[in-house]
Design goal:
Jelly Rolls, 2 domains, 17% helix
Length: 336
Amino acid sequence: MAYSATWDNGNAQGRLEAGSHYASLSDADELAERVNRRRLLVYQNSQDFSSAVYSGAPVENDLPTDLRSNMTGTILEPSVGGLGGSPATPADMDWLWPIADADEGKIIVAGDSGVGAGEVGLLQKLNGTDHWTDSTLTAYETGVRAVHYNELRQAIEWIHRGKWELPIYFAAGIFSVLPDAQWIDEAIANNGSDELRSIGYALFTSSGRGLVDVTVRSGSSLTITANKDCTVEAHHCLRPLLWASDQPTWNEYQPGPDKSWSTAGGVGAGDSTLIGSVALTAGVPGSISNSALVSVLQAMVDGAETNFLLRRYDTGSETIDISGEVTIEFDLTADE
C-alpha cells in the first residue's frame, strides 16, 4: 500500500495558510506522534513532548525546534547497532528519497553540513538553504508561524521510505550424522550423503521498536558470503525455535513430543519455504532478490518467525563458513 499523509488542519495540500488556518495544540500533537513513529522505527524509544505540547504552553525552544532536531538528527542520522549483538544490529539505517525524479533512491541527509554523492539534502529540498526557517525559536520573542509547521509536515511526508541492513545470526547447526545433537556452527556442508545445515535469525523488532507496519519493497535482498565456492539454498524457517534454551537438531525443531520436523533436516512441508539459491565465489558476497524474498520479509514484518535456514545445494568435501545479512527496503503504511 502506498504511503500517504493526511493532516487534520490545513488546505487541500495539508498546509496551514496564513490568515486562514491557526496552528493549534492538535497540530503539535499530530507532529509529535509522527516524529515518534519514526523514532520507534529507527530503534529509539518514543520521546515525551508533553512538557511543551499542552494547552496554554508558551512558545519555547523545543516546540517545534525539538521536533525539527529529531527529524534532522536522531531520525535521519540514527545510531546504528543500538540493539547490540555481534555483529551489531541494525548494521545500517538510511532513509531514501521517495519522489520519482532524478534524486529518487538517494540517501536523505539533513544537508546542514553539505550533501555528498548519492545523497539529497532535506533542508535544501525544503527551502533551498541549509537550515530550517527561523532555526532558533525563543520563548516570547520568536512566534511559531505556519511555515514552521508546514516544513515539518513536508519533511514527514518525504521521510517514509527506508533501507535497513540487519545481520543474520546463525546460531544453530543441524547435522544429519548426529541427528539428535545440538550444534552451534556458522557453517554448511554437503558431501552427497550427509549434510550440515545452518539456521539463524534476524532481529526485526524489539519492545515495539523497529520494523512495524511497513510495506516491503522489491529492492530488498538477502546477502550471503562463503569462504569456498559453492551454491547455497536459502529457506524461511517457519517453526518456532527456542534460541535461548533448546536449539533445534536434525530431527526436531524443539525437544518434546510432536516437535519433529515434518521432514528431518527442516526443509519439509510446514518446516520452511524456499526463498532461492545463489552461486557463490569464495569471499565474494552474493545476493538473492526476488518476489519470494519480498513475501518472506513481509511475513516476518507482520509477525512470522524471523528465521533463515541455509544449506549447501551442490556437493563437495569441504565444510564451508558462512555469514549473512538481510537488506529491507520499505515504505511506511501508517504514521500513528
